[in-house]
Write a structure and sequence with these properties.
Chain lengths: ~110, ~110
């Protein structure tokens, strides 16, 4: 199984940028890198995804290493609402469909 | 608004009973999924379906059953064979095709065995 490795937890001060790292050394050429975040007792929320190039959207930026073995989710200005568990996931084709395999994620705490 | 609706939000089950969790989507998505989440853990795939009248087992299908009679609906039954069913259950859906498609999740259902 394609797997990702993330730190268990991180802290950030409010209104400062946050860089959430993810290692995925076993990634293959067709695997997409997805990031989701989850608040307690809620369903995960899509943040961003990419394949090879860096990506930006209104929520965050995704920086993908040239060898694709690691990536970084960038929150440009952390707010208290960004406190959540962030999952870095590879979307891998297997058994006729694309699947998401979740790890334990990184719990981000934002300090006022 | 389009989205995924799970019900009930909270459910209590007596040991030996089967219970069914509902999942409905109006996003016109072909693919639907059921995940289980235990406290402090990530999500684990129970079952998924790529098309009506077809579904496949995920990583932890034992003790669970599903049906996909309509595109919009993908109910999950937790049977008495599931020995430790207390968990948070999440339904999701997406379009089929490439790995770049977003998966949308419902708000989840808490199941507790009493």
């Amino acid at each position: 199984d394609a797997k990702t490795t993330q730190p268990n937890s991180m802290e950030s001060n409010e209104e400062e940028p946050v860089h959430l790292p993810c290692n995925h050394s076993t990634i293959s050429g067709t695997d997409y890198i997805h990031w989701y975040r989850q608040l307690p007792s809620q369903g995960p929320e899509y943040v961003i995804h990419g394949l090879t190039s860096n990506v930006n959207n209104r929520m965050a930026s995704l920086a993908i290493a040239e060898d694709r073995k690691s990536s970084t989710l960038i929150l440009h200005r952390a707010t208290l609402r960004d406190a959540a568990v962030y999952y870095c996931i590879l979307r891998v084709f297997g058994a006729g469909s694309y699947q998401l395999t979740f790890g334990k994620g990184t719990k981000l705490s934002v300090i006022p | 608004d389009g989205g995924i609706t799970q019900s009930p939000k909270y459910l209590f089950r007596k040991e030996g009973q089967n219970v069914t969790l509902s999942c409905e989507q109006n996003l016109n998505h072909d693919a639907m999924y059921w995940y289980r989440q235990d406290p402090g853990q990530g999500l684990r795939l129970i079952y998924y379906s790529q098309i009506v009248n077809d579904f496949q087992k995920g990583d932890i299908a034992e003790g669970y059953s599903v049906s996909r009679e309509k595109k919009e609906s993908f109910p999950l039954t937790v049977t008495s064979a599931q020995k430790n069913p207390t968990a948070f259950y999440l339904c999701a859906s997406s379009t089929s095709g490439t790995g770049g498609n977003t998966i949308y999740f419902g708000e989840g259902s808490w199941l507790t065995v009493v």
